[in-house]
């Protein structure tokens, strides 16, 4: 099935490109599914489970989920306001720095 792209107008060419990209994605998914099946069969043939080889769970990639970080800085004006030192600086922290305090002065 040869397509003469020189005779296609702009819309027809875009449609052909979209269909080709869609088909390419379908082929990739099929190839990945076949590869996944081969890997599972090989693991099973060796007498192991997927979890034995790759570890428990498949998400997160080493990240801790839901953990909290201990506060590193405390607002001297309101001791209940703390900051772990991660993410955007709180307003009270920036205000204290502008007032002449140093980070080590605010450290817990």
Automatic annotation (TrEMBL):
Pfam families (UniProt xref): Histone_HNS (PF00816)
Location within or outside the cell: Cytoplasm, Nucleoid
A single Gene Ontology CC term: cytosol
Sorted UniProt keywords: Cytoplasm, DNA-binding
Recorded family membership: Belongs to the histone-like protein H-NS family.
GO molecular function terms listed in the Swiss-Prot or TrEMBL record: bent DNA binding; DNA-binding transcription repressor activity; minor groove of adenine-thymine-rich DNA binding; transcription cis-regulatory region binding
Residue segments, region Disordered: 54-91
Coiled coil: none
Domain of life per record: Bacteria
Domain called DNA-binding protein H-NS-like C-terminal: residue spans: 60-108
First-listed, main subcellular location of the protein, grouped into a coarse class: cytoplasm
Name recorded for this polypeptide: Histidine biosynthesis protein
UniProt source species: Dyella jiangningensis
């Amino acid at each position: 099935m040869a397509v003469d792209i020189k005779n296609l107008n702009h819309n027809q060419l875009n449609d052909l490109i979209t269909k080709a990209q869609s088909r390419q994605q379908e082929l990739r998914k099929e190839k990945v599914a076949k590869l996944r099946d081969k890997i599972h069969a090989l693991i099973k043939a060796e007498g192991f489970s997927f979890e034995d080889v790759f570890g428990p769970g498949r998400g997160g990639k080493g990240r801790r989920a839901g953990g909290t970080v201990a506060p590193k800085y405390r607002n001297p004006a309101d001791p209940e306001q703390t900051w772990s030192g991660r993410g955007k600086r709180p307003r009270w922290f920036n205000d204290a720095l502008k007032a002449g305090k140093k980070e080590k002065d605010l450290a817990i």
